[in-house]
Write a structure and sequence with these properties.
Aminopeptidase; about 30% helix; about 25% strand; alpha+beta; acyltransferase activity, transferring groups other than amino-acyl groups; Acyl_CoA_acyltransferase; GNAT_dom; 4 helices; single chain
Length: about 160
């Protein structure tokens, strides 16, 4: 099972590598400077949210090895197994603090790493006082929606809208 560890400022290089992989998998543009700027406040404190690294779990006195899957990125097994970014919101409808899972990426998929990490992440959100958790996925990404549904997330009838400022 993986272990979530709060990311620190000295984890920035690993996080940038992971965000590059995540954006490549999802087909999004990536800008190291923009991502590093956005990660800064999250790595320095808890006011806006939290960043977590997914690492190999440590059992009682021994490391639990997770075999690399064929076709996994070359870096799998050589560093963090993935990462998660949670940002805080506040809502009258929810009655207080909400968590937005802004990014959730696991290098080695289909082996239970993501499920164990999601379980720990939801516990961390609860411990931070969040009353609900939201996330969004790309419309054509049915496998991601199946994963999230297995972890208790539901499709919402509301439509998210956005615009730049």
């Amino acid at each position: 099972m993986p272990l979530l560890r709060r990311a620190r400022p000295d984890d920035l290089a690993d996080l940038l590598e992971l965000t590059r992989e995540f954006n490549a998998v999802d087909g999004h543009d990536h800008d190291d400077a923009r991502v590093a700027h956005a990660l800064g406040p999250l790595l320095e404190g808890d006011e806006h949210g939290q960043v977590w690294l997914i690492e190999k779990a440590v059992g009682i006195g021994e490391a639990v090895e997770i075999e690399e899957a064929e076709g996994a990125p070359a870096a799998a097994g050589a560093g963090p197994l993935g990462y998660a970014v949670v940002c805080w919101g506040y809502s009258l409808e929810s009655g207080g603090r909400e968590a937005l899972i802004d990014e959730f990426y696991v290098r080695d998929r289909g082996r239970g790493v993501g499920s164990a990490a999601m379980h720990e992440l939801l516990d961390a959100c609860r411990a931070a006082g969040a009353l609900g958790v939201f996330l969004e996925t790309e419309a054509p990404n049915e496998s991601a929606r199946r994963f999230y549904r297995r972890h208790g997330f539901q499709d919402e009838p509301s439509i998210w809208m956005s615009r730049g400022l």
